[in-house]
Amino acid sequence: MSEWTNGNLQISRKALDLVEQAGVAAYGRDEEACGFLTGPQSEALLCDEAVELENLANKYHQIDPEGHPRTGREYFKINSLKFEKTISKGASEGKPVKVFFHSHLDCGAYFSQEDAASMTNGGTGDPAYDLAYLVTAVDKGEVTAHKLFIWDSPSQAFVESPFRIVD
How is the chain split into domains, by residue range? Predict the structure, then answer.
């Protein structure tokens, strides 16, 4: 496990601004925003860059509504192969992916059972990625909260962890 999976992260204001902008813009499209935070390997607890990913949920729903009954308003779907390549590239370049972020629309910042299932291969064990998880609440088009979650092995659950915003 990487040090950032223990929580107590420092997230730059610049990175958090991008998360908030992505959340508000996605709210306007009636879908959850999603993406990741990176930071220097030499400062394990610092996340200083945010990158938004495309939420594919609405595309999948439009093509196959029976097979994908939920829309992007209710969950996120990413290109996992592309994300795994991004994780590998970040690690090799000394700027690892440390946090996966996504937004919730009109329901608060919490780590849902669906979030947990998507990050643990259907709830069948430890998380698929060596990351912390940031959930941003976007209520009525405005960011109202951020909460950081980490995996707690003894309880086999995601638990909230404090984080600090830095300049």
Answer: 3-166
pLDDT digits (tens, 9 = 90+) for 37-56: 999 999 999 999 999 999 99
Give the pair of three-digit tokens for residue 69.
């009954």
Instruction: DSSP letter for 141, please.
Output: T
pLDDT tens, residue by residue, 110-165: 988 888 888 887 767 789 899 999 999 999 999 999 999 999 989 888 999 999 99
H helical segments located in the chain = 13-28, 57-63, 80-92, 113-119
85: which 2 tokens? 């390549």
Q: Which residue has the tokens 């979650």?
A: 149
Q: What is the pTM of this model?
A: 0.94
- Give the domain 3-166 fold: Cytidine Deaminase; domain 2 (3.40.140)
CA atoms within 13 A on the CB side of 150: 17
CB 38 within 8 A of CB 47: yes
